[in-house]
Design brief:
elongated; Rho-like_N; Rho termination factor N-terminal domain-containing protein; Rho_N_sf; DUF7218
Length: 79
C-alpha cells in the first residue's frame, strides 16, 4: 500500500527535503497551483477575502470560516 497520488512529485520531494511532514508536503503539492514559479502569484493583500478563504479551504486550515482577511493572510503565511 503506497502513499496517495501526488500531483507534483518534484515539489513534494523538495518540501520533504525542507522538513515538511508527508501530509503537509502532499497537501501543498496537490493544490491546483502547485509547481507554479514564485513571484507570479498575487500578494495576499491584493486578493479578496473570498480568494483567501478558497485557498485556506484547499489547505484545510481549521477555523477559516471565522477569520477576517488579516487572519486568513496570517494563517496562509504560517501554514
Amino acid at each position: 500500500m503506497g502513499r496517495p497520488s501526488i500531483k507534483n512529485e518534484e515539489q513534494y520531494e523538495a518540501l520533504r527535503d525542507k522538513g515538511y511532514s508527508k501530509e503537509k508536503a502532499a497537501r501543498i503539492a496537490n493544490t491546483d497551483n502547485s509547481g507554479k514559479k514564485g513571484g507570479k502569484a498575487s500578494n495576499y493583500e491584493d486578493r479578496t477575502k473570498e480568494e483567501l478563504y478558497q485557498q485556506a479551504q484547499e489547505l484545510e486550515i481549521e477555523g477559516r470560516s471565522t477569520m477576517n482577511k488579516e487572519e486568513l493572510i496570517e494563517a496562509l503565511r504560517n501554514n
